[in-house]
Amino acid sequence: MDNISVNVSSHPKNKDISVLAVRGFIDTTTAPEFEKTFHDVLDNKKYKLIVDLKDVNYISSAGWGIFISELKRIRKQKGDLILVGMNPEVSEVFELLEFNTILKSFPSVDQAVIKGFQKS
């Protein structure tokens, strides 16, 4: 039984932005599947990414590693990777690992679309 599903869609108001809605958890057993989907999106030249984690209850180091490993490539293409909807457990690890210093996060997809891709 797979404990992850990833649904990729373009944001209705901004077709440049791809939303990856993840459900389940990202750990060593599910990370490869998530990574494949993630790479498929990048291979389609989509570099403005929002990863919706509201239905994710756990991310292991394997999962966090996927985000971090592709960040340089994404930003080199003038894109960005933004995480949204993290639950308290996921958010706590995110801050503990200090990923909040390199990745933006927002409570919702809409906020990420409005604020996330502005030129800083």
Textual characterization of the structure:
With 120 residues, this protein is α/β, with parallel strands linked by helices. Helices cover 38% and strands 34% of the residues. Strand 1 (4-11) and strand 2 form a beta hairpin. The model has no long low-confidence stretch (mean pLDDT 94).
Secondary structure category: alpha/beta
Q: How many DSSP E strands?
A: 5
What is the alpha-carbon Rg in Å? 13 Å
Largest sheet entry: 5 strands, mixed
Q: Between the first and last Cα atoms, what is the distance in angstroms?
A: 42 Å
N-to-C SSE series? Answer: EEHEHEHEH
Percent of sequence in beta strands: 25-35%
Neighbour order of strands in the largest sheet: 1-2-3-4-5
* Shape, principal axes of CA atoms: globular
Helix content: 25-40%
The low-confidence runs, each spanning 5 or more residues with pLDDT under 50, are none
User: What is the average of the pLDDT values?
Assistant: 94
Work out the helix count: 4
Write the layout of secondary structure elements.
Layout lengths: L3 E8 L2 E13 L4 H13 L4 E12 L1 H16 L3 E5 L3 H9 L7 E3 L2 H7 L5
Parallel strand pairs: 2-3, 3-4, 4-5
Antiparallel strand pairs: 1-2
Describe the structure using short key phrases.
34% strand, five-stranded mixed beta sheet, 38% helix, 5 strands, 120 residues
A few lines on this structure:
It contains 4 helices and 5 strands; from the N terminus they run ββαβαβαβα. It has 120 residues and is α/β, with parallel strands linked by helices. Helix 1 (31-43) packs parallel to helix 2 (61-76).
